[in-house]
Amino acid sequence: MAAPTFVPAKFAALPGWARDDMRAAWPAFMASCGVLVKRSDWKESCTIARQVNADSDKAIRLFFETFFVPNQVVAADGANTGLVTGYYEPLLHGARKRGGPYQTPLYKVPDDLVSVDLSGVYPELKNMRLRGKLVGKKVIPYATRADIERATSVTGKELLWVDDEVEAFFLQVQGSGRVQLTDTQETVRVAYADQNGHPYKSIGRYLVDKGELTLSQASAQGIKAWIAGHPTRKDELFNANPSYVFFKEERLPDPKVGPKGALGVPLTPQRSVAIDSRYVPLGAPVFLSTTQANSDIPMQRLVMAQDTGGAIRGPIRVDYFFGFGAEAAENAGRMKQSGAVWVLLPKQAPAR
């Protein structure tokens, strides 16, 4: 796994840096600092941040320009741009008990799923986990998506039941969402709890490789339209992705607060992104230069690397969190742009 190069830059060289509204990014940065302040290389800057006027764009910009250095991420092959996609928090309709239209289960973590943190033995495998099941004294691969759908081992582990198998699949791709329960008249959040250990495979790529869709048609909207036109091939398509996500239920006291990402803090719509934490430090501010969904209109802004995802692999690979609601879903489904990334690191922390 070749490491990327972090190339120090000047803030003046960041496209659109002077035009971004720093106030919109500040709450997300302070959320990151709630975690990062415990680390020696972040303690000073995160402590000073508490004294910054959150209502002053000028004060926030001065803070970043004084205490941070932007480092452009350049891949091992010399590329300085990569893929920027989008994700969102979907809303599904369901019930606590199976019945009527609610026939598709969302599962809790099965009792026989074993998850092993490898970094204790192999420090170079930090952020890597081995998942499987124990058979005798051996850990063997856990069931694939197709196997789980047929397995009895997950019977009784149903968390909730929803009314749409397609939306349930896309919920797993997004990683979390909300379910409006008709039997108890409440809306709950279902959050990522674990995964079966198999790598994520894009069903959009599967359809492109099969000649069913062109690359430009393989948006979430295009895939759903294809499924509607080919209902007998739905299982074939879903099983092309062997990865399977298990969920846990969380309360939703404030609908305006986003789901928690891998950093453990709530995601901020349009200011939080998922990255590959093997290359980009989780929690760090990231300046992203890309374009709006399905457009050539520039989108250049400061965001926080607060999440990860099974499909997010590579040094310049960003998944942009659009938030909750129909507009967020529309933009996320069409987001497939090229972008450049600068990681902001505290000045006292050496860049790679």
Principal-axis shape: globular
Kindly report the average pLDDT value: 92
Number of strands: 17
The percentage helix is: 10-25%
C-alpha termini separation? 15 Å
Q: With helices defined by DSSP (H or I, 4 residues minimum), what is the helix count?
A: 9
Main β sheet profile: 6 strands, mixed, barrel
Strand content: 25-35%
Spatial order of the strands forming the largest sheet: 3-16-13-15-14-17
Structural class: alpha+beta
Which regions contain 5 or more consecutive residues with pLDDT less than 50? none
Gyration radius, in Å? 21 Å
What does this structure look like?
The chain is an alpha+beta fold and 352 residues long. The chain is built from nine helices and 17 strands. It has a six-stranded mixed barrel with strand order 3-16-13-15-14-17. Strands 5-9-4-10-11-12 form a six-stranded mixed β-sheet, with helices on one face. It has a three-stranded antiparallel β-sheet with strand order 6-7-8, with no helix packed on it. A hairpin with a 4-residue loop joins strand 10 and strand 11 (186-195). It is globular and about 60 Å long. The two termini are 15 Å apart. The model has no long low-confidence stretch (mean pLDDT 92).
